From TrEMBL, chain A:
InterPro entries: UCP026631 (IPR014529), YdbS-like_PH (IPR005182). Pfam families: bPH_2. Residues 61-139, 253-312, 403-482 form the YdbS-like PH domain. This is YdbS-like PH domain-containing protein. PANTHER family: UPF0699 TRANSMEMBRANE PROTEIN YDBS, UPF0699 TRANSMEMBRANE PROTEIN YDBT. Keywords: Membrane, Transmembrane, Transmembrane helix. The chain crosses the membrane at residues 15-35, 41-62, 182-203, 223-247, 357-379, 385-401. It comes from the Bacteria.
From TrEMBL, chain B:
Residues 71-147 form the YdbS-like PH domain. Signal peptide: none annotated. The chain crosses the membrane at residues 20-40, 46-67. Keywords: Membrane, Transmembrane, Transmembrane helix. It comes from Lentilactobacillus hilgardii (strain ATCC 8290 / DSM 20176 / CCUG 30140 / JCM 1155 / KCTC 3500 / NBRC 15886 / NCIMB 8040 / NRRL B-1843 / 9). Pfam families: bPH_2. This is YdbS-like PH domain-containing protein. PANTHER family: UPF0699 TRANSMEMBRANE PROTEIN YDBS, UPF0699 TRANSMEMBRANE PROTEIN YDBT. The keyword Membrane applies. Coiled coil: none annotated.
């Protein structure tokens, strides 16, 4: 079967991709080897570069793919030959990403993933191919899907113009991000905090590289007007962090669109790199509505899908965004057309009694005592300033407890919790709960409290959703509800 | 929350043996540190050696004490719809695995379990994995068959 289709190479532009990857991989060796190699500097650079180029060329030469009648075949490997066959019916998701400079050339990167859950990364990556490759694969995939509902049941039907028919059958919905909301979203990100950390670290590194004598004169200056300079640097770091996080978010979700077509959800986003992810709607295991405290005030929310596939999961644990930013009151109006089982509106939740807040606040305070003890031990009196953390801990605990909630709604379980000033609400259809547990310490059983934990598949791993210090009778009610087979 | 079956009595032996094996491994590391300290004169190995030795003894004592406790509160229960595992008293935990979600059941036995003629039962869902430490082979096999039979009956898993 596979031999029918012609073997195709990647686009020659992929050589740049391999070179880039190679430099990333081997660059670490260069960094290790170079500082000690004053004389052989260029020899080392030259050797590494030629290695990168040779390996890139070999990879390019040995990497071929065939778009056959009923499957894609990928041949790769220099010494160990690998042939991966993916029947069209087995394809779960196709992800594409396109850098802006490849757009005029009509080139893009494709990632094709199947349902097997062995590896974390998508099964097959075609680094640089023409856009027509994707079109051809999608056409054949739709043709297979159209012929039989059974996945994996292959037919000898090949490129049939099934595209138009399937699109006209199912109504398509379209959503586009609101630029104003995106601005608010980017400004209310907590992402500036880690970024500030990175900037502070970079600043520390830069100091190392500044020549000693220069630093000495500067240090004298600093001592004379230290407060002013330090607060100036802090302010600068904060401003750069805010601006950096703002632009990184805006470019990431620039012109985000969500489309539903023939039981698939398709997202399209990005400024410099346009990315697209397609997932089958029936792979969505649960929905997650998330907002940090700033966004609670700004009345905007983020909706994510926990999907049983690694789509959107691959860049550092990012989740499949369905609606990156949406006015909170509008969440379910917008969501419903895409995910038919989503509730019509926010369901009012059962809340913790006020006296349970104590446990959250106590735990948060106990945890902060560790760094406080450290600070006081090392910095003595100055370390006492860390006692201010107790106030933050109090509010963290308060926030967590006041945002804990739960409800049963039809065949769905809704669980909400707060963590580090971020509120997360999960909407989990009962059939997607893989297992669940009730946990209780001996002290909690005297007070008639319990933690309820529910496990859902997310990507290729497990997502544990937990609500804590719930009255035992409520936890038990949910537990027994989950027990009954639907 | 109290219904359910205890594990077979022999599992205590398994836990005790594995406690001694952990002890032996930690002790060997500690002795290795000590030997290197004496003969190679690696000063920095002194405290790690003591540390490993102490951990070895503390771990052994705790594990041996906990054997009866674990046994007393560890139960499993197969209902019409779910496998339920219960453990602990100070930290009580009740896990329920709906059979409709079970992807596969694996029986296995390492050398220690073989010596006691027991098998572990590993129940895997699409995202989690749960273990019953040891069962008589016929019980394990029966459990596996029951779970798989129920799982086949309710096959509407779309993960």
């Amino acid at each position: 079967m596979t031999s029918e289709a012609p073997k195709q190479h990647l686009n020659p532009f992929s050589l740049f991709y391999y070179a880039y990857k190679g430099i990333l991989n081997w660059g670490i060796f260069a960094l290790i080897a170079l500082p000690s190699q004053r004389t052989n500097f260029w020899v080392v650079i030259g050797t590494l570069l030629s290695l990168v180029i040779i390996i890139g060329l070999l990879k390019f030469f040995f990497f071929t793919f065939q778009i056959g009648g009923d499957m894609i075949t990928i041949n790769s490997g220099i010494f160990v030959k690998r042939h991966t066959h993916i029947p069209y019916g087995r394809i779960q998701t196709i992800q594409r990403s396109q850098w802006f400079f490849l757009k005029p050339l009509h080139l893009e990167q494709l990632k094709i993933e199947t349902a097997g859950h062995e590896s974390h990364r998508p099964e097959v990556t075609l680094p640089v191919v023409s856009e027509s490759v994707r079109e051809e694969i999608e056409r054949k995939r739709l043709a297979v899907k159209g012929n039989s509902t059974m996945p994996g049941l292959t037919t000898d039907q090949s490129a049939k113009p099934a595209v138009d028919s399937s699109i006209s059958i199912t109504a398509t919905h379209h959503y586009e991000i609101n630029p104003h909301d995106l601005n608010v979203f980017a400004l209310t990100s907590f992402g500036i905090l880690p970024l500030m950390g990175v900037l502070a670290a970079v600043y520390g590194k830069i100091q190392e590289y500044i020549p000693k004598h220069f630093l000495n004169t500067v240090t004298k200056e600093i001592i004379s007007q230290s407060i002013l300079i330090i607060s100036g640097i802090v302010l600068l770091i904060v401003i750069i962090a805010v601006v950096g996080s703002y632009f990184s978010l805006v470019q990431k979700y620039y012109k985000f669109t969500l489309t539903s077509e023939s039981n698939q959800l398709k997202t399209y986003q990005g400024l410099f790199q346009r990315k697209s992810v397609t997932i089958p709607i029936n792979r969505i295991q649960a929905l997650r509505v998330k907002q940090n405290v700033l966004r609670q005030w700004a009345k905007i929310s983020t909706v994510q899908a926990l999907a049983a596939s690694s789509a959107g999961d691959d860049d550092k644990g990012n989740d499949m965004m369905i609606l990156p930013v949406i006015k909170t009151h509008d969440v379910f109006n917008q969501l419903k057309p895409f995910v038919s089982w989503a509730p019509d509106q926010f369901i009012s939740l059962e809340r913790l009694p006020k006296r349970h807040y104590f446990y959250f606040i106590r735990n948060a305070i106990l945890w902060t005592l560790i760094p406080i003890a450290g600070c006081i031990y090392f910095f003595r009196l100055w370390g006492a300033f860390s006692l201010l953390l107790l106030i933050i801990a109090f509010f963290l605990g308060w926030y967590s407890s006041s945002n804990t909630g739960w409800q049963l709604h039809g065949d769905q379980l809704i669980m909400q919790s707060g963590w580090l000033f971020t509120r997360t609400e999960f909407i989990i259809p009962k059939k997607n709960v893989q297992s669940f547990s009730l946990n209780q310490s001996i002290w909690m059983s005297h007070k008639k409290l319990a933690h309820l934990r529910v496990n859902v598949r997310h990507g290729n791993h497990n997502e544990q959703v937990e609500i804590r210090y719930v009255p035992f009778k409520d936890a038990e009610k949910i537990f027994n509800w989950l027990r009954i087979r639907n | 929350m109290t219904e359910g079956t205890h594990l077979p009595e022999k599992i205590k032996n398994v836990w005790r043996i594995s406690a001694f094996i952990n002890f032996a491994i930690l002790l060997i590391i500690a002795i290795g540190c000590y030997i290197a300290f004496i003969f190679l004169n690696w000063q920095w190995l002194f405290w790690p050696g003591i540390g490993f030795g102490a951990i070895a003894i503390i771990d052994l004592i705790f594990e041996l004490i906990l054997v009866s406790y674990r046994y007393a509160f560890w139960r499993y229960n197969l209902t019409a719809d779910a496998v339920e595992l219960q453990s602990g008293y100070i930290f009580k935990k009740l896990v329920s695995i709906p059979i409709a979600r079970v992807q596969d059941v694996t029986l296995s036995a390492g050398p220690i379990l073989q010596s006691q003629k027991l098998q572990t039962v590993q129940i895997t869902t699409a995202s989690t994995s749960h273990k019953i430490d040891g069962l008589e082979p016929q019980t394990a096999e029966q459990l596996r068959r029951q779970i798989m039979q129920l799982a086949v009956e309710v096959k509407e898993n779309d993960v």
